[in-house]
Design a protein that fits this description.
The chain has about 700 residues and is mainly β. It is built from seven helices and 36 strands. A seven-stranded mixed sheet has the order 15-14-13-17-22-19-20. A seven-stranded mixed sheet has the order 28-27-26-29-34-31-32, with no helix packed on it. The longest helix is centred in the middle third of the chain and has 12 residues. The two termini are about 20 Å apart.
């Protein structure tokens, strides 16, 4: 059980983490009021040596990701067809910054084989979009190809902290997937990079194909040091399971996953999920959209309330075989918003010391093993530039008509508040989230001032109507904070993102429409009906916890756990046995009791869920939740754009957030915070649906 004194001590250090400004390239300042203190000037959004204010904005056209080419089609047992892909992650040089500035070395997914002569064998960060059909399985051979032209492994682009509970290939088969011990603070790990791909939002996927954090694999390099583990603890077990389930063979440097695609039409995305390295691997570039289309809850089931006929959403979107660059106009566009920082040579910047976050150094107070502070891991990271679909601050030409924009918050720790309010005459409607279409369209213009909050990994399917927008250039803004988010309103509860840099997302160049808009106005859309989940058979009170360092005024790690019968949080490490174990077919309510100073975007693998409500917890005079957890006031319903089904939900500090999910598929999965720095240091837990599987790893 956690000592109450270990909690609620982080508000000051979290809100003033940017005091470590010596590495910042930015030349402007903001003022932070410390509790009970006087205003103090600190540099805003520290980063690398490249000053974000010196980077030209809105000179690069937005890349609309092409469609990933298939390697072919398969017939599954029983004759059912499946789409087959062979996709590797490679190191490449990419022009992320505007032309004239140096290119950036990144990692990106891309197809290595194509059944079509027009297939685009392009690696990019973010990657090409996988277009899939409802109830048509997709099989992917995921290949770790992080090797040079001589077949030798490529080290990580970013500093890897080996003191976390991480994949730990140098530990060999006995020490992999552990938190190693050291006699002195170690330097960063520079060996071959483990990877395993997770399809975020996949429902009903087998655990062997979910991208379990301990199912990673190294590239098939010819110089992997002797004694290194080349696969994670669960790799062999899952490989055997894949062989028996769908006759797939795994081997050195690759794994084969299969996705059933029997879920609602929805916006998914794929990214790395290696234990203790997700923040670094994703920051280096590997990610992409995966769209599921069709079925009884797809866009062809949307009706026009005026006629009862099938409605028409804005399109087209890219399709397989389109030329690149395209020779046609797209009215449906996926948009991945990420934050990054760079050095003057174009390289990615990511901190190589905890000193960056809050000033902790090897001298005072010291690091592992002398203290509980890891030397490289940072509790959060905020890039000082916004990157959209792989380019910093691009522009997109739009006609005066309706568009379907499918947003992803792919940032590290940054909550976004997309702000269309500076675009005169625009109308914005939300029609979908992670789990597919909403119960009904939500007029964000009328109800939300043309703004939308997006937590990490959340997706938003928007209809944006530019019909009445004046011709000319307009900027989509971000008014979320340049610091950890705890809820509230911009400029009332927190400072907005810097308006010269991270407060700008994308320029929209409005031009006349080339033809009448045939699409259905969103106020007349009748979205597919939603079948509610059955009554829950169990309620699980869970805890979101942050452990304060005993040596330093700052966090040592973030954790998950549960509440005991007295409402006290019981924290659990990643390595501890499963404590969340729904039965196959059960519907459960999970309650996220947040004892930290931050909002956390909570993600549950394998299933989607309904957001039931949120309710305040009793807090102290500083607004901090202290054990035991005690409810206060009445629950409030979910936000209108949280209707339907989701896979990620914002759990605010000082509240309990309740979700309801059905667990149909047996196996070993995870639930975690999607602030990737948090999940990499203990804010992730395994959970199991159904009984222990015969032969599964015990560690």
């Amino acid at each position: 059980m956690m000592d109450p004194k270990d909690m609620g001590r982080l508000q000051l250090s979290r809100r003033t983490f940017i005091r470590a400004a010596g590495v910042a390239g930015a030349g402007f300042v903001l003022y932070v009021h410390t509790p009970g203190g006087t205003p103090r000037a600190v540099a805003a959004v520290p980063g690398g040596t490249l000053d974000p204010t010196a980077v030209p904005k809105f000179v690069t056209p937005l890349l609309i990701p092409p469609v990933m080419p298939r390697a072919g089609t398969l017939k599954l047992p029983g004759g059912k067809p499946a789409d087959y892909y062979e996709i590797s992650v490679k190191q490449l040089s990419q022009q992320i910054l505007p032309a004239g500035l140096p290119a950036t070395t990144v990692w990106g997914y891309g197809a290595v084989t194509s059944a079509s002569k027009r297939g685009l064998l392009i690696h990019h960060a973010p990657s090409l979009t996988i277009e899939s059909r409802w109830d048509r399985p997709v099989r992917v051979k995921w290949i770790n190809d992080l090797v040079d032209t001589n077949g030798r492994y490529l080290p990580h682009l970013l500093p890897v902290d080996p003191t976390l509970h991480w994949a730990n290939p140098p530990g060999g088969d006995d020490g992999r997937d552990t938190r190693p011990t050291f006699s002195d603070p170690p330097g960063p790990y520079t060996g071959p990079v483990p990877m395993v791909t997770h399809l975020h939002g996949a429902v009903g996927v087998g655990d062997e194909s979910d991208g379990y954090p301990e199912a990673w694999f190294l590239p098939a390099a010819n110089n992997v040091p002797a004694g290194y583990a080349t696969e994670g603890t669960w790799y062999d077990f899952f490989g055997s399971k894949a062989s028996s389930r769908y006759a797939a063979t795994w081997g050195p440097g690759f794994a084969v996953f299969q996705y059933p695609n029997d879920q609602r039409e929805s916006t998914l995305w794929y990214h790395d999920h290696t234990l203790g390295m997700t923040r670094l691997n994703v920051y280096a570039g590997p990610a992409g959209f995966f769209l599921v289309r069709g079925g009884p809850q797809g866009d062809k089931a949307i009706l026009d309330s005026r006629s009862g006929a099938t409605a028409l959403l804005p399109g087209p979107a890219p399709i397989e075989g389109d030329k690149f660059p395209p020779n046609k106009t797209y009215y449906e566009i996926p948009i991945a918003v990420q934050d990054r920082a760079f050095n003057e040579d174009g390289s990615l910047f990511y901190p190589d010391s905890r000193e960056f976050f809050d000033g902790a150094t090897a001298e005072d107070p010291g690091f592992v093993p002398q203290t509980d502070l890891s030397p490289i891991w940072n509790p959060e990271f905020f890039g000082n530039m916004i990157m959209v679909n792989g380019s910093t601050w691009p522009f997109q030409v739009v006609e005066r008509r309706r568009y379907r924009l499918r947003f992803l918050n792919g940032c590290q720790s940054r909550f976004l508040i997309l702000d269309f309010a500076a675009i005169p005459g625009v109308q914005v409607w939300a029609i979908g989230n992670e789990g597919g279409f909403l119960a009904a369209p939500v007029n964000l213009t009328a109800t939300n001032g043309n703004r939308l909050l997006m937590g990490l990994a959340e997706r938003a399917d928007l209809i944006v109507d530019f019909t009445n927008v004046p011709l000319g250039n307009h900027v989509l803004r971000n008014v979320g904070p340049d610091e950890p988010f705890g809820g509230g309103e911009p400029d009332e509860d927190f400072d907005e993102a810097d308006p010269a840099t991270t407060g700008q997302v994308l320029q929209l160049r409005v031009v006349p429409a080339v033809a009448p808009d045939p699409t259905t106005p969103p106020q007349f859309l009748v979205l597919p009906p939603i079948t509610p989940l059955p009554a829950a058979t169990n309620t699980r009170p869970l805890a979101l916890i942050e452990i304060a360092s005993t040596y330093w005024d700052g966090p040592a790690e973030a954790m998950l756990g549960f509440l005991d019968e007295d409402g006290m949080p019981v924290h659990k490490m990643w390595e501890e046995p499963v404590s969340e174990n729904p039965k196959v077919g059960d519907t459960e309510i999970w309650e996220f009791h947040n004892f930290t100073a931050d909002a956390h975007p909570m993600h549950v693998h394998e299933t989607t869920f309904e957001v039931i409500n949120r309710q305040a917890l009793v807090t102290n005079e500083d607004g901090e939740t202290e054990p035991p957890s005690r409810l206060e006031g009445e629950p409030r319903p979910p936000e209108p754009w949280e209707s339907g089904f989701k896979d990620t939900v914002i759990a605010y500090p000082g509240e309990v957030t309740r979700i309801k999910a059905r667990f149909n598929n047996p196996g070993q999965f995870v639930w975690h915070c999607h602030i990737v720095e948090h999940e990499d240091n203990e804010m992730m837990r395994p959970y199991r649906i159904g009984p222990v599987q015969q032969g599964q790893p015990t560690a």
